[in-house]
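Changelog note: in this version the structure field was regenerated for every chain. One regenerated record is shown below for reference.
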Amino acid sequence: MPFSPSTPTVATIRRCNPPLPVSVTLNAVSCTGGSVYWYQTANSGIPIQPSSAFTTSVNGDATFFAECVNNTTGCASYTLGLGFVDIVPATISNAQLAPIYNSSNSPNFIQAAQTITATNTIQSTGNIIYQAGQSVLLLPNFIAEKNATFLAEAKGCINEN
């Protein structure tokens, strides 16, 4: 019985306040003995490019999917590798921050290349990190409810990959 190849690994790409659209190249690795096929959706069925490196232009955050197909058997990887493109805006204002409900263990990460200005409410189940290159300004109506996990930090945005 043929076996499925391993799931390709794709690193997240982050661009800090780029002019849009921005060209990015995603690279899939760990597809030994196979070919990588890229998709725009997890179940589209029609690859947008057959190559371990995939270059595209994006106007904002995007997700792409990579599949490894064994060159001998034709078997595809059981799961798809996820390729994330994270476009970090220069600023985020309160208009872009809704009340935040996040009950997962991993934090909801809000990042701006320069500043974040907030008057929103972080609910008691929130687990949030605000990170801006220059400043995070919490205005008088900003609330982090009891039991919410919240961190605000001034930390530079770093382009990745």
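Spot check on this record: The chain has two domains: 9-88, 91-154. The chain has no helices and 16 strands.
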